[in-house]
Design a protein that fits this description.
By secondary structure, the protein is mainly alpha-helical. The protein has helices at about 1-15, 20, 40-45, 50-55, 90-95, 100-135, 140-165, 180-190, 195-210, 215-230, and strands at about 30-35, 75-80, 85-90. The chain is built from ten helices and three strands. Strand 2 and strand 3 (about 85-90) form a beta hairpin. Helix 9 packs across helix 10 (about 215-230).
Length: about 230
Amino acid sequence: MHQMRRLMSVMEAEETGHPFEMAGLGLAPFKCVGAYSLPSPSLAEANPQAYNNALQEMPRDYGVGTCAYCGMSLVHNFLINSSDSRKFVVGSECVAKTGDKGLSDAVKVKAARIRHDARRAKVQARREIDRQKWMTDNADRLAAEKLEREAKEAVIQAQRSQMQMKWKFMLPHLQGDSPFISSMRDSIESGEEPRGRAVTILGEIYAKDHGRRGSKGYYDALDRFAELIG
């Protein structure tokens, strides 16, 4: 179907002369290879970076901004290539007036995409405005919540530091790679306090490093252990 339309466009140009060809814009058939919309001045005010990015994406060598056929200024530019490699931009109305169905259909598809993108951009802009308004309206509450979070985090960090200092005496006694030893070492280094049965086992490990079980050194170490952990 596409090839048939292209052939019809060529035949029509040969019989009557394609308007773009007669205007000196190159030889038919002509092909729409893309579309580019100039960014609005309002975007420059709202988001200068996005505006500059849009300008950087502007196609070169097409004369964007002015219709090559009628000379009118354009916001929505349709990029046209001629069969002899000429490049120019035109508006959708000028394409419609050519009677070139294949070219018109291609431009209609790209124009629909422009409208779709414009609607999506409008929705996103509205959401951003609403988000900024919500942030402004809730600024005090958000600031208070942030301070509360920071205060809680500071308390937690202080508690962990306290636990690390309290239990660091055990680290030299936690040698080896057994699951329990590794777990206790990781807990102490992260500031988590051992609890329950783990405390009893740690006490035994500490005491054994100071004397065999049942010896005076063993029991003295157990007493020191109890004092160190409070």
